[in-house]
Specification:
With 218 residues, the protein is α/β, with parallel strands linked by helices. The protein is 44% helix and 17% strand. The chain has an 8-stranded parallel beta barrel, surrounded by 7 helices. Helix 1 packs parallel to helix 2, helix 3 runs parallel beside helix 5 and helix 5 crosses helix 6. This is Deoxyribose-phosphate aldolase.
Length: 218
């Protein structure tokens, strides 16, 4: 297991994913020593059974990919994910609230998800930075810290574009040295990964983890 592999959430969030593909994802994660497999909620139980006895964790998504479900639904999704064995939960904020400046609502929702996860799962907050201004990204990051989240995350990978160096730098500067920062979406090469880590990312979400690891010299 390498230091590099432990940065990577080995990800398959396509709606077309099959059981066979999820099993392969887990096998690759175990083989390469990735931090987690990141799968849609329907696959959490299967992935959890498959990682038993290995160091690989299971990550899933909440309010994904739009972030526009109600807080109650996001809380239920979180509780369900934890019950099914998720170790980490990546939740999407309500983008419309961010654009309208409803920061107290965003903070309250994040806190509700954090409370639902309890001590059983880490919570990463997906900001979808490609839809936000720098000021909005910074405020969303501050609210994530205030609500008790464990990470801020750039992107779902399903919007206009994924992680950028500039967004990762801003998020790291805002949250300080201790909170996690996850760069996700568009990280496909060793060079991409290196740039994100240099900018301040402590976790990488990628579907190309095996290829990245094969060519990485970090």
């Amino acid at each position: 297991m390498s230091k590099i592999s432990q940065l990577i959430d080995h990800t398959l969030l396509a709606p077309t994913a099959t059981a066979t593909q999820i099993d392969t994802l887990v096998q690759e994660a175990v083989e390469h020593g990735f931090k987690t497999v990141c799968v849609n909620p329907a696959w959490v139980s299967r992935a959890r059974r498959a990682v038993e006895g290995t160091p690989v964790g299971v990550c899933t998504v909440v309010g994904f990919p739009l972030g526009a479900s109600t807080t109650a639904v996001k809380v239920f999704e979180t509780t369900d994910a934890v019950t099914n064995g998720a170790h980490e939960v990546d939740m999407v904020i309500n983008i419309g609230w961010a654009l309208a400046g409803q920061w107290d609502d965003i903070e309250a929702e994040i806190r509700a998800v954090v409370d639902a996860a309890g001590s059983q799962a880490l919570v990463k907050v997906i900001l979808e930075t490609c839809l936000l201004t720098a000021e909005q990204t910074a405020e969303a990051s501050r609210r994530s810290v205030a609500a008790g989240a464990d990470f801020v995350k750039t992107s779902t990978g399903f919007s206009k574009h994924g992680a950028t160096v500039e967004a990762v730098q801003l998020m790291r500067e805002t949250v300080g040295p201790d909170l996690g920062v996850k760069a996700s979406g568009g990280v496909r090469t060793p060079e991409d990964l290196a740039r994100m880590v240099e900018a301040g990312a402590s976790r990488i979400g990628a579907s190309a983890g095996a290829a990245i690891l094969a060519g990485s010299t970090i």
